[in-house]
Amino acid sequence: MDLPADPVPELKVGRVIPEDVWAILCIFAEARGEPYEGMVAVGNVIRNRTSKRHFSDGTIVGTVCAPKQFSWMNDADGQRTRVLGACWDESTCRLAAKAWAESATVQLVGDALWYHADYVSPYWSKAGGMEFVRRIGRHLFYRRAKETHP
Asked: Could you give the CA distance from residue 39 to residue 29 in angstroms, rounded to a whole number?
C-alpha cells in the first residue's frame, strides 16, 4: 500500500490537538461533577499555572500534561481513556468548553495555583506558605501566602 506524500494535506500548521482542547478536556476530567462555577475555577488554575510557568513550560498542553499535576493525566487514573474519548455532543463537554472560554475573563479564585477535592488531604495543602482561597463545590483552592513585611 502506497501512502500519499502528504496524507493529510488540509492540516498544514498547528497541533493535532489544539491548546484549547487540552484545557477543555482537563476541565471535563477534573470538574465535570462540579457546579459550573467550579469548572470556570479549574480553567482559572490552568491559566494561572500557564502564565506563571508553574509546573508548566508556558503552554496549555505543557501545563495540563505536567507529571502528577492533574489527576486525570496520572498513569494510575482510569478515567484518561474516558476523557480522551469524550464527544462534543455530550452536554458536560460543551459546558467545559464554555467554562474554559469564560475563565479568560472571569476570575473566581484569584491567583490560585492549586486545588484538591475535599475527600483527600494532600500534604502540600498544609505546608507553610499555602493560603486557602475558597471552596467551590467539592474543590478547595489555594495560592501562595502573601508575605508581609513590618
From this structure: 10
Work out the end-to-end distance of the chain between its first and last CA atoms, rounded to an integer number of angstroms: 75
Residue 138: count of CB within 10 angstroms of its CB: 15
Residue ranges per structural domain of the chain: 19-108
Region 19-108: CATH code: 1.10.10
Q: Is 143 helix (H, G, I), strand (E, B) or coil?
A: strand
Q: What is the pLDDT of residues 14-45, one digit of tens each?
A: 667 889 999 999 999 999 999 999 999 999 99
pTM of the predicted model, to two decimals? 0.85
How do residues 118-139 score in pLDDT, each as one tens digit? 999 999 998 888 999 999 999 9
Residue type, 105: T
* 8 A C-beta contact, residue 112 and residue 142: yes
Cell numbers given for 61: 498542553
Q: Decide: 36 and 96 in contact? Cβ < 8 Å.
A: no
Output the CA angle 55-58-64, nearest 5 degrees: 55
